[in-house]
Amino acid sequence: MAEPTDPKTADSKAAQPGVATGNAAVRDRYPFDDTQDFDDAKRGFIGTADDPTVRGSDGSTVWGLDSYGFLDDDCPDTANPSLWRQGRLVAQHGLYEVVEGVYQVRGFDLSNMTLVEGDRGVLVIDPLISAETAAAALALYRRHRGERPVTGVLYTHSHVDHFGGIRGVITQDDVDGGVPVIAPEGFLEHAVSENVYAGTAMGRRAAYMYGAALPKGARGQIGAGLGQTTSTGSVGLIPPTLDVTATGQTETVDGVRMVFQLTPGTEAPSELNVHLPDHKALCMAENATHNLHNLLTLRGAQVRNPHVWAHYLTETIALHAGSVDVAFASHHWPVWGRERVLTFLSEQRDLYAYLHDQTLRMLNQGMTGLEIAEEMTVPPALERAWNTHGYYGSVSHNVKAVYQHYMGWFDGNPAHLWEHPPAESAKRYLDFMGGADAVVRRARESFAAGDYRWVAQVINHVLFAEPDNADARALQADALEQLGYGSENGTWRNFFLMGALELRKGPVGTPTAVVAPDLLAALTLGQLFDSLAIRVDGPRSWDADLTIRFSLRDGDPAVLRLRNGVLVHITGTTPEAPEPDLDIALAEADLRALLLGTVQLDALTAQGRAETTGDPGKLAELLGHLSAPDPDFAIVTP
Asked: How far apart are CA 313 and CA 261, in angstroms?
């Protein structure tokens, strides 16, 4: 295979002998002669786009359909053959018939778009991440199936890869004209809060998780397991017009009958499965896919409970497994045949239940999360099933998530109760270990012995004490790279290789931005006030005490009070709210614009859209106590 030419991989190294040997052993461990998944992934193929590049309005590349053509080659030593196999499956792209009247566009984003034909148009299920990729997917469908209008949209859950492309398939005018947007109850709250409250930190870590900035190739990004990577186009959100509030609820849109199963607290806090009885088809959203999913995603999120997940899969089997001929999801490829559907759903259920139950068994024997993660193995029957492999979630980090869910961050050892933070610990470690040069020298010996985990762990101390130490940076990059080469998990590989890239080339930042205008517009006033409160620089605001009342012309008055470094919002009348330093009378829309910084108070006043009583400078004073989030914060250095 040709040496890498991308400048980002110019410093990449070949796989070390131990990694190459380990990857070769994978070929003997698993049934690579089983081609059922490849047969299923190709089944129903109709066609794909002529132009392999999806572009944004500025001409930038949002998605490249041919970016993963290299996966057609034999797996090199620099990749785990199991992950390479998964990447080859997921990289297939085009329009596919699931059953008559149900189609999927796959490979146009991290997720799939499903299209169900109705009496006069088409129902879209999960319109991808970006408007650009969603529009390209819909255009491909229409090219082969005709210019059917979109007569409804269903969001299966509250993650951005299942709603962000909405404006590529419908407009707000379509919704105002009667096109329903259906979602599980709680969708809007969770979709907005996840992407706004901790969105900056999640976005930065997502850059590592999905590796969108990595070169694609044998020494770079080969996929994320669940899909290949995230598109980088325009994210939008149109709020739902119809909530699904109960399992068994039935809705018909354009002649398409849907029977819903609510599954809150599984893969997302707000999620549902949907049975299409007239098609004998079952959409599993993201609750059953061709890999072990995350119980705690590496980008960061709330821990998901595998006990709840397994419970709902058991309920799915009872409700639908006896009456469907195909199960499909918003990632990967369908499973056809009732017996195979039952087996698939049962294996997925047993996987989550096993990890949950065995983690609790071992933690009740006194083992910590780290110890359980090293000890845990799944039953051979589950390991032989390709759909249980940890391409996206992993047994290791999922087990730690179960421990965290029940026991929190503390492992019970008082020595871990009040540790020094990383940079301070690192200085002390180096002092005890004879200095940075001695540590690097010994770590090179460990690298030569193939103990890359230890190299990464010990050199991390050097970097957090001396972040500019060139020898340490180079060695750490080499160690992380080898760990990436051996990983079966796509997100682990991306994390390791992103760490190596940033150590060699410097920070790449966050390729995608999920705090889009539509998401901000969907915030309730309370959520908007909360989003300001989490930006208050507490120590700098300890002595501040100011109150602003917003007398809304179209709603109840709202009061913001900053005191003790805390910004509290109060709606209505309360004895806690003192006389305000400033009262601003305005409409809610103008208040939102004011707080989001798209309009200034003096402009609103000059236009007669706002009236003030008190000191107008208090608003600027309040906003001056807010700090800006950092989308480019360091990860592999302090």
From this structure: 10
Across the chain, mean pLDDT equals: 95
> Looking at residue 509, what is its pLDDT?
79
572, burial (CB in 10 Å: exposed 0-12, middle 13-18, buried 19+) = exposed
Judge whether 486 and 80 are in contact, CB under 8 Å. yes
Is-contact 512 635, C-beta < 8 A? no
For 69-106, write each residue's pLDDT tens digit.
999 999 999 999 999 999 999 999 999 999 999 999 99
Q: Are 229 and 211 in contact (CB under 8 A)?
A: yes
Residue 447 CA to residue 454 CA, distance in Å, equals 8
Question: Distance between CA 367 and CA 408 in Å, rounded?
Answer: 14
**Cα–Cα distance for residue pair 482/14, rounded to 1 Å:** 9
Cα–Cα distance for residue pair 326/340, rounded to 1 Å: 9
Per-residue confidence band for 571, with pLDDT thresholds at 50, 70 and 90? confident
Q: In what order do the strands lie in the sheet with 335-336?
A: 250-253, 256-262, 272-276, 281-283, 326-328, 335-336
Q: Which residue has the tokens 């706002």?
A: 610
Phi, psi at 471, each rounded to 5°: -65, -40
Structure tokens at 49: 């786009």
CA distance 179 to 360: 47
Which residue in the block uniquely carries the two structure tokens 């997720």? 111
Res. 339 pLDDT band, cuts 50 70 90: very high
Beta-strand runs (E) in 435-532:
none
What are the two backbone dihedrals, phi and then psi, of residue 276, each rounded to the nearest 5 degrees?
-105, 85
Token pair for 463: 């970097």
Instruction: Give tens-digit pLDDT for 458-473.
Output: 999 999 999 999 999 9
Nearest to 107 by CA among 136, 84, 143, 72: 136
Residue with tokens 């997502």: 206
Give one DSSP letter per residue of 124-168, joined into a string.
EE---S-HHHHHHHHHHHHHHH--PPEEEEE--BSSGGGTTTGGG
Distance CA(446)–CA(443), nearest Å, equals: 5
User: How far does CA 503 lie from the centroid of its chain?
Assistant: 24
Give the dihedral of Cα atoms 365, 366, 368, 371; nearest 10 deg.
-60
| pLDDT on residue 1 | 42
Exposure letters 549-559 (e unless 16+ CB within 10 A, then b): bbbbeeeebbb
How far is 359 from 275, CA to CA, in rounded Å?
A: 33
The percent of residues above 70 in pLDDT, for the chain, comes to: 98
- The pTM of this model reads 0.96
- Residue 512 banded pLDDT, cuts 50, 70, 90: low
Q: Which of 146, 144, 140, 93 is nearest to 118 (CA)?
A: 146
Determine the average pLDDT of the residues in 616-624. Answer: 96
Residue type, 288: A
Bridge pairing between strands 94-99 and 61-64 = unpaired
Q: Which of 412, 492, 506, 427 is nearest to 460 (CA)?
A: 427
Beta-carbon count within 10 A of 447 CB: 19
What share of residues in the chain are helix, strand, coil (percent, to 5)? 40, 15, 40
Strands (E), 14-55: 45-47, 53-55
